[in-house]
Amino acid sequence: MGDLVRRRLGTVVVLGLLLVLFSANRIAVLVTDFWWFDARGFRQVFTTVLSTRVLLALVFGAVLTLLIAANLLIARKLRPFYVPSSPQQAQIQRYREMVDPYLPWLIAAIAVVFGVTSGLAVSASWDSWLLFRDGGSVGIADPQFGIDLGFYLFSLPFWSLLQTWLFTSLVLTAMLAAGAHYLLGGIRPEAENEKILPSVKAHLAVLLALILAVRAWGYWLD
């Protein structure tokens, strides 16, 4: 037990050192930017941009994390109690038995990794959110739709960002859910009769409907 604890502690220390190493450059850039803005009397500009990026990363990252985790947990709940035997299923069954004790942790890890990645990506578009939040009308309507030009200047960039993010997130979630159903036995391409369980079809159909709805929204925005 002592050796196991030491190995785990060593792993944590190594991961911590790697995290610090990869973060050092970003921290150095962040501190340098702060000094530069502060020296020129624009500290508020720096803090506004930074707080906006953090807010976007947290909100969008948390939403995608919950979306992926919820759908993977649904896939876990819908897995069949019995999977008909076949050479392909026998091979997959070995992976199921190996992963099953750690499945909740694996689901959490997958959701968090994709959530953090998505949050960081969206945070780079901080200016779209600030334009949406602080923009207004310009008092001139476009001749075709009669919409104030302020919508195109201030609101449309953020709505387009949100639509793209939703579409990408739902497609990613559907792919992960389909993969989970396959690994857990809900999708069996080699089966003679029921290749996809009805509950799995319903789950994936809901995700597909959401994807199509968001895609239609994108066409409307265009």
Would you write up a description of this structure?
By secondary structure, the chain is an all-alpha fold. It folds into two domains: 1-41; 52-221, no CATH class. It has helices spanning 2-39, 43-77, 87-99, 103-123, 126-134, 149-184, 198-221. It is flat, with a radius of gyration of 24 Å.
Largest pleated sheet: none
Based on helices, strands and strand pairing, what is the structural class?
A: mainly alpha
- The number of helical elements comes to 7
- Oligomeric grouping of the chains: single chain
Helix content: over 70%
Number of domains: 2
- The average pLDDT value, as a whole number, equals 86
List keywords for this structure.
about 220 residues; mainly alpha; 2 domains; 7 helices
